[in-house]
Design goal:
about 475 residues; alpha+beta; five-stranded mixed sheet; elongated
Length: about 475
C-alpha cells in the first residue's frame, strides 16, 4: 500500500513534468520547422529565379540569330542541377525553341516573370528582351522537395523529443525523490496515528523550503489534535460521571413515581369503596326519611332533604369522573381499526335516549376510520358529543356536526362543532384542566373533569386537542390521534 501511494505521487509529478516538457519541445520544434521550411522555400525560389535570369542572358544571342543548337547547349548546362527536371526556351509566339529534360506536363502557361508552385513543382519564368525587343521566354521546372524535407524534420523532431523526455524522466525521478520523501514521512506518521491514536508522534523536518513548512504545519495540527483529544477525554469522563448520577436520580425518581402510583391506586380504592359507601348510605337514608316523614315535612324541610340527595349524587358522579381520569392514565393503549362516525352515532343515540324531546340536527361525516384504542376514543366521542348536546340545550334547535379536516401540518384532524353557548377564547388555556368550568352548575350541570379526560386520552395517543369558540356562537373542538 505504501509503495502504491509512493508510486502514485511520483507518477503524478512525473506526468506533469513530462507533459510540460513534451508540450514545450513540440511547440518549439513546430516553430523551428515552419521557420526553416519557409526559409528553405524562399532560398530555393531565389536560386531558381537567378538560374532563369542567367539562362535568359546566355540564350539571348541564340534567339537573336535563330541558333537552336547554341540554346540547347546552354540548357544542357543544367545537368549540374539535378533538382531541375525540365527546362525550355519559347519563342514569343509560344513555340518551343529549345528544351531540356523530359517535361511530361509540357510548357507552362506563360505569365509574368517569377516563381510559382504548379502541382508538386516549382516553375520559374523569365522573359528575354534585347534592346526592348521581346526575343522569347525561358522556363525552369524543378521538383518541390518540401514534403521530403518536412518528413526529415519531423523524424529529427521526434527523436529529439523522445530523447529529451527520457532525460527529463531520469532527472525528474532524482529530483522528485527529494520532494516526496518528507511528504511520504508525513503520510506514514498520519497512518501510524490513525492506527494507534498516539498524538505524540511527530514528523521530522528535513528541508527549509515550502515542504518543511508543510511538515511544521502538520506537527502543529498534531499538537492541536492532542489537546482536543485530551479535552474530549475529560469531557467524556465528566459525561460518564453525569450519566451515572443521572441514572441514580432516574432510579430514585422511578421509585418515587412507583410509590406515588401505589398511593394513587390506594386512593382510588379508597374513593371507590370508603367514600362511595357513605354517600350511598346518605342517599338511601335520605330517601327513607323522605318516605317515612312524607306527610310531616314542610316545604323547607323537603327542600333541605332534596339538596342533601342532589349533592350526594353530585359527589358520587364526581368520584366516578375522578376514577375514570385515573383509569385513563393507567390503562394500556392498544391501537386497532375504529370508525369514529359509528362512535359519534352511538354517543348521539345515548343523548337522545335521555332527552327524546330535543330538536337537534345531527351531521356526521362518513368514512372517518383510523387506528386508535377503541375504549379510550369512545370516551372522547362521548364527552365531546355530550358537551355539544349539553351546551345547545337552551336553543330551540341544536346543530351538531362531527367531521374530519386536515390540520396545519396536513395530518387528519377530527372535530365536533355545535351552535351552543360557546366560551371566551381568552380562557382557553384553562379549558382542559380538571374542575375548570366556564358556566355555573345552574346553567349547565357537569363535573368539570370531562375535557381533562379527553385531553389525557388524546395526549396518550401522541395527538393534540384545541378549540375555537366565541360566546353565544358555539364551539368547535379539534383533535388528532397521532401517527398511524
Amino acid at each position: 500500500m505504501d509503495g502504491d501511494r509512493k508510486r502514485s505521487i511520483r507518477h503524478q509529478l512525473n506526468r506533469v513534468v513530462l507533459v510540460a516538457t513534451f508540450l514545450a519541445l513540440t511547440l518549439a520544434g513546430i516553430a523551428m520547422v515552419i521557420f526553416d521550411l519557409r526559409s528553405y522555400q524562399e532560398t530555393w525560389e531565389k536560386d531558381l529565379q537567378t538560374q532563369a535570369d542567367l539562362l535568359g542572358l546566355a540564350t539571348a544571342p541564340a534567339l537573336s540569330f535563330n541558333d537552336p543548337k547554341t540554346a540547347r547547349e546552354n540548357l544542357a548546362l543544367l545537368k549540374a542541377r539535378p533538382n531541375i527536371g525540365a527546362a525550355g526556351i519559347l519563342t514569343p509566339d509560344g513555340r518551343v525553341f529549345a528544351s531540356y529534360g523530359e517535361d511530361a506536363e509540357g510548357p507552362p502557361k506563360i505569365g509574368a516573370d517569377g516563381v510559382r508552385v504548379i502541382g508538386q513543382d516549382l516553375v520559374a519564368v523569365k522573359h528575354i528582351y534585347n534592346e526592348g525587343e521581346h526575343l522569347g521566354t525561358v522556363y525552369l521546372r524543378a521538383h518541390h522537395e518540401r514534403l521530403a524535407r518536412l518528413q526529415q524534420y519531423l523524424t529529427v523532431l521526434c527523436l529529439v523529443i523522445a530523447g529529451s523526455l527520457a532525460l527529463a524522466l531520469l532527472v525528474s525521478n532524482r529530483l522528485l525523490a527529494l520532494v516526496t520523501r518528507p511528504l511520504l514521512q508525513v503520510s506514514q506518521v498520519a497512518r501510524r496515528i490513525t492506527a494507534t491514536r498516539d498524538y505524540d508522534l511527530r514528523a521530522s523536518r528535513t528541508s527549509n523550503d515550502e515542504v518543511g513548512e508543510v511538515v511544521d504545519a502538520f506537527n502543529d495540527m498534531l499538537a492541536e489534535l492532542a489537546r482536543r483529544a485530551q479535552a474530549l477525554e475529560e469531557v467524556h469522563q465528566q459525561t460518564l460521571a453525569l450519566n451515572a448520577d443521572l441514572e441514580e436520580r432516574v432510579r430514585k425518581r422511578t421509585e418515587e413515581l412507583q410509590a406515588a402510583n401505589r398511593e394513587l391506586e390506594a386512593f382510588s380504592y379508597s374513593a371507590s369503596h370508603d367514600l362511595r359507601a357513605p354517600l350511598q348510605t346518605i342517599d338511601s337514608f335520605s330517601n327513607l326519611l323522605e318516605r317515612s316523614l312524607k306527610d310531616k315535612l314542610d316545604d323547607r324541610s323537603r327542600h333541605y332533604l332534596h339538596r342533601v340527595q342532589i349533592n350526594a349524587r353530585v359527589m358520587s358522579h364526581l368520584i366516578d369522573a375522578l376514577l375514570g381520569l385515573a383509569h385513563v392514565s393507567r390503562a394500556s393503549l392498544e391501537r386497532s381499526s375504529i370508525d369514529l362516525g359509528e362512535m359519534a352515532d352511538a354517543a348521539v343515540e345515548r343523548c337522545r335516549e335521555q332527552e327524546p324531546e330535543r330538536d337537534a340536527v345531527i351531521d356526521i361525516a362518513p368514512g372517518m376510520t383510523t387506528r386508535a384504542d377503541p375504549a379510550l376514543v369512545k370516551q372522547v366521542m362521548q364527552n365531546l358529543v355530550g358537551n355539544a348536546w349539553k351546551f345547545t340545550s337552551r336553543l330551540p334547535q341544536a346543530r351538531i356536526t362531527v367531521g374530519r379536516a386536515p390540520d396545519s401540518d396536513g395530518q387528519p384532524a377530527y372535530f365536533v362543532r355545535d351552535n351552543g353557548a360557546g366560551f371566551d377564547m381568552a380562557y382557553a388555556d384553562r379549558l382542559f384542566n380538571a374542575f375548570q368550568r366556564f358556566h355555573t352548575p345552574a346553567e349547565f350541570p357537569g363535573t368539570g373533569v370531562g375535557l381533562a379526560t379527553v385531553h389525557k386520552i388524546v395526549t396518550r395517543h401522541d395527538g393534540r386537542i384545541w378549540a375555537e369558540s366565541a360566546p353565544g356562537q358555539g364551539a368547535t373542538f379539534f383533535f388528532t390521534l397521532g401517527p398511524q
